[in-house]
């Protein structure tokens, strides 16, 4: 694995570590058909996915033209102007407008080059799953649980896009050379903290040492961290520790006392209390 591939996997791994904090909200979802003279100039206020069902869609962003074919999935970031058209036979696609955030940060995806056209052969299974959940959600009278299925389908699509990028098999072409979230605080500044936390779970960590790693004053560090990631440094450390505790318990070869030491807790009682607060059961009864 190259250094750049390793960094990409580390960066995108934040979605695994903080999966419990991820919230997806579907704002609207419909199927649209357009004839051959359709042209659209727009910039959306939220994230937007198009699942191309028929015809060809040409999209121009920043003076560069991109083409989406049937089966492809088009991913737009908020506030990015585009022009879309469907020359010739027209087109048909399912669109979904949605919010995707970690904690209080609703633009977390802006730190990653995911916006673009995902080729159908890379996302076929997830796109078909979403199409099925969309059809279910449009049944007359409403099928019980249909909106949950729709949300689950969208979650699977986003997980696949994130996975493809993490594996180096997809990089969105719509945001090349730009960072839509630069003014809000970039995760790049926090990467040394993420690594440091992972390497030092066995001991307590002070905000002053984490702030120094980021090159930020201690006074500003917590607010910067929360603005960039959507949660506080303390919440992040706690989440990572609970993830590791779960993994250690699944292995069934570590005592509660050992795990407490691995994760920097002074004694098994303190660890068990923190664990139960998170999982609602003590570590001795978790597996």
From TrEMBL:
Molecular function per GO: DNA-binding transcription factor activity; sequence-specific DNA binding
Signal peptide extent: none
Database matches in Gene3D superfamilies: Homeodomain-like, Jelly Rolls
Keywords of this entry: Cytoplasm, DNA-binding, Transcription, Transcription regulation
Pfam families for this protein: AraC_binding, HTH_18
PROSITE patterns linked to this entry: HTH_ARAC_FAMILY_2
Domain HTH araC/xylS-type stretches: 191-287
Protein name: Helix-turn-helix transcriptional regulator
Organism annotation: Cohnella zeiphila
């Amino acid at each position: 694995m190259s250094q750049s591939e390793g960094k990409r996997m580390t960066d995108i791994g934040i979605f695994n570590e903080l999966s419990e904090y991820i919230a997806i909200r579907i704002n609207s979802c419909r199927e649209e058909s357009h004839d051959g003279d359709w042209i659209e100039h727009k910039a959306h206020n939220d994230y937007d996915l198009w699942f191309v069902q028929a015809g060809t869609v040409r999209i121009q962003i920043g003076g560069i033209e991109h083409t989406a074919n049937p089966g492809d999935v088009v991913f737009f970031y908020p506030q990015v102007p585009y022009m879309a058209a469907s020359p010739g036979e027209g087109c048909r696609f399912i669109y979904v407008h949605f919010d995707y955030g970690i904690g209080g940060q609703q633009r977390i995806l802006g730190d990653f080059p995911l916006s673009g056209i995902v080729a159908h052969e890379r996302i076929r299974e997830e796109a078909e799953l979403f199409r099925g959940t969309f059809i279910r959600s449009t049944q007359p009278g409403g099928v019980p649980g249909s909106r949950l299925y729709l949300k689950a389908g969208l979650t699977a699509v986003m997980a696949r896009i994130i996975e493809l990028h993490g594996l180096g098999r997809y990089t969105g072409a719509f945001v090349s050379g730009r960072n839509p979230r630069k003014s809000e605080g970039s995760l790049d500044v926090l990467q040394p903290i993420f690594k440091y936390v992972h390497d030092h779970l066995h001991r307590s960590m002070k905000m002053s040492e984490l702030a120094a790693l980021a090159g930020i004053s201690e006074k500003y560090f917590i607010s910067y961290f929360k603005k960039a990631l959507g949660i506080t440094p303390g919440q992040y450390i706690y989440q990572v520790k609970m993830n590791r505790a779960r993994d250690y318990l699944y292995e069934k070869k570590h005592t509660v006392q050992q795990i407490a030491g691995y994760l920097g807790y002074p004694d098994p009682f303190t660890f068990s209390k923190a664990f139960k607060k998170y999982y609602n059961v003590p570590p001795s009864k978790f597996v």
